[in-house]
Design a protein that fits this description.
Number of strands: 5
Number of domains: 1
Strand content: 15-25%
Oligomer: single chain
Order of helices and strands: HEEEHEEH
Helix content: 25-40%
Radius of gyration: 23 Å
Shape: elongated
Structural class: alpha+beta
Number of helices: 3
């Protein structure tokens, strides 16, 4: 009778310790890059870049144009056609879902910064081995405040 009582007491600490040690730490999430460039004529350009997962590396990306409609601050307006891609990542999300999340992150960044107050025109999108990139131009021109806030550190 005592043997059956002691067995759960011996097994419980082993199960608790193995459960804690089995999950490796996640690598830190790489932050999106948002680069602004105000041209001498007052046009406001930007580049938004997001790291892609390792399982998506090597995919061929193509540019696509999309003009923003009358959406909110920095919004694209209506949803355009997603890039023509297939496949899913290890968590079952499609490329279309991932790309849509990138556009949502861009809209959030434009809203937070107030960079494109009247929406934007998408000039190009492309993928490198490690990043998905969106190039755009704001529908509004730069004010004196914009020129003071968004200093051109990088030219493109």
């Amino acid at each position: 009778m005592k043997k059956t009582f002691l067995l759960p007491l011996c097994v419980t600490p082993v199960l608790l310790l193995s459960g804690c040690a089995s999950k490796p730490d996640k690598p830190p999430k790489e932050q999106p890059l948002f680069v602004t460039n105000i041209k001498p004529d007052g046009s406001k350009m930007f580049s938004f870049s997001v790291a892609m997962r390792a399982e998506k590396q090597g995919r061929d990306g193509g540019g696509r144009g999309r003009e923003s409609g009358g959406g909110g601050r920095g919004g694209r307006g209506g949803k355009g056609a997603p890039p023509e891609r297939d496949g899913q990542d290890s968590q079952g999300r499609s490329d279309e879902d991932r790309i849509e999340k990138i556009y949502e992150a861009l809209d959030l960044k434009l809203g937070e910064t107030g960079y494109c107050r009247e929406g934007y025109i998408e000039i190009d999108t492309y993928e490198t081995e490690t990043r998905f990139n969106i190039l755009g131009e704001c529908n509004d021109s730069a004010t004196n405040e914009d020129k003071a806030l968004f200093i051109n550190d990088y030219g493109y």
